[in-house]
Write a structure and sequence with these properties.
This protein is mainly α and 214 residues long. The chain has 8 helices and no strands.
Length: 214
């Protein structure tokens, strides 16, 4: 059941990322960097997700002074594929031109990113390297996710500007609200997921006691 939430979280996360890209109002600093690299250097947005993930895995390994988390690359690989898949589907379905439609698309994307990230992080299986970096900085600085996430966003914002990524009002909103939304969803999703996982792990025992002949 844990792996179901893991995949579900990544699917929601990548859908949110694709919505913000399609909104044309600006994406998160990290995604703006990916799009900027894709436009100016080549390769797909998802491909750059995987490449940057490799770099971040090395950084995380250095900060934690432990072996690189190979499973983090697996998550980044799945995320990269998810982003390219959703972008392909949304490009044929949604091309917002009116201002309020762009705002709606961006709003859906921002909430989906926070929700999806919170869901898959609670599976504690293999965080995306940038999310692992968020948790590492939170631990090292003894702050909350809001501050650590916002700090990381500011660093990638400067890099996105250098590579002419889609920086706009949406980027500013992501920097201001991204960590806040994630901080809101973390305890909420933890309560729900823990309850479901606990129920699913105890159900077989209950059934066995109820039907001892099986």
């Amino acid at each position: 059941m844990k792996y179901v939430f893991y995949v579900l979280g990544i699917l929601i996360l990548t859908l949110g990322i694709s919505f913000t890209i399609q909104s044309d109002l600006g994406t998160s600093p990290f995604d703006a960097l990916l799009v900027g690299l894709s436009i100016n250097v080549g390769l797909t947005v998802g491909s750059w997700e995987i490449i940057i993930a490799l770099i971040l895995i090395c950084c995380n390994s250095f900060l934690k002074r432990q072996r690189p988390e190979v499973l983090g690359f697996l998550t980044a690989f799945i995320t990269g594929i998810g982003i390219d898949m959703w972008l392909f589907l949304l490009d044929n379905l949604i091309t917002p031109e009116l201002g309020y439609i762009k705002v709606v698309c961006f709003g859906i994307g921002l909430v989906a990113i926070g929700l999806g990230t919170a869901i898959y992080l609670h599976t504690n299986f293999a965080p995306i390297p940038i999310d692992r970096l968020t948790l590492i900085i939170q631990e090292l600085t003894r702050t909350n996710i809001l501050l650590s996430r916002t700090g990381i966003y500011l660093v990638f914002l400067m890099m996105a500007i250098i590579f002419n990524g889609p920086v706009g009002i949406g980027t500013l909103l992501t920097v201001c609200l991204g960590g806040l939304i994630l901080n809101y969803f973390m305890p909420l999703t933890k309560k729900i997921i823990d309850r479901i996982l606990t129920h699913s792990s105890t159900s077989p025992i209950y059934d066995k006691d109820k039907n001892p002949s099986i």
